[in-house]
Description:
Elements: H1 6-16, E1 21-22, H2 25-31, E2 39-42, E3 45-48, E4 50-54, E5 58-64, H3 69-75, E6 79-86, E7 95-108, E8 116-123, H4 129-147, E9 153-154, H5 157-163, E10 171-174, E11 177-179, E12 181-186, E13 190-196, H6 199-202, E14 206-213, E15 218-232, E16 235-245, H7 252-273
Helix pairs in contact: 1-4, 4-7
Amino acid sequence: MPVTTSQQITRYFQQFSQAEITFTKEVVQTINLNGKQVYVKCLGSQWPCIVYAASMTTARIIANMRSGLNECIKKANNVVQLRFSFVEPDKPDPITFFVPARVAGVTPYGEQNKDLFFANLEFSQRPPDDLIQILGQLLEANVNAKRRTEERIPLSAHSIKQLGLMVGQCSLTVDAVPRRSIFRDLSFSGCKAVLMGVPKLLVNKPTIVRLVFDDPEQIFEIPGEICRSDPVEGRDDIAAFGIKFDEEKVPMGYKMRINAALKQFRSKAAAKES
């Protein structure tokens, strides 16, 4: 997990404490939630549960309330603990912690399985910094993906290293045809690539940009289309093409990569100015 200062943790909590994240499959994969090790604990006993959504102050879980959990919650005056577990890539031990909470309400999950219920939990204290960091980084990346959508990262030797981009393994497909290309920059919303071709024949064509990163290893295939072309001086057989990603299909993991890199670059620039 990237190093985050106590000031950043405090800023995340102040800015995003009420923002709820639905734990879709993509979210679970992005934050490396170890779902098999998530439990709700009550009076010393633990029951497996599914985190449906969470913020830094609340959570909604799905659990089997007819397995003795409901009776236990009543005996405990609605006091429980929610156990989170996150896998850290390249580390043998997960990040695991309990968040004290109270059950604010229980509703049926659905007609298909009458044993399952939604339980609304309200955290009784500020959660551990690990949870604030994990949720905060995700929320910040989503906000900045809209706020800084056109802010570009020129791909130099330095920025490629900072991003962890495996340039030799990246590729571009245009209208279902693989194309040899050189990527020039990346942003939340798209990228620029130099490739051979007649601009008027390639603009508005659908694309798939395949980006490979390491530390940790991640592969993203992002659909989009070529939206413009710029000439390359002294060459009429190649051009620089601007590619706009399909906004709804940009992976969260990619947004977090770009956000982290932009923060690093801005921080270093500010340090030089001071």
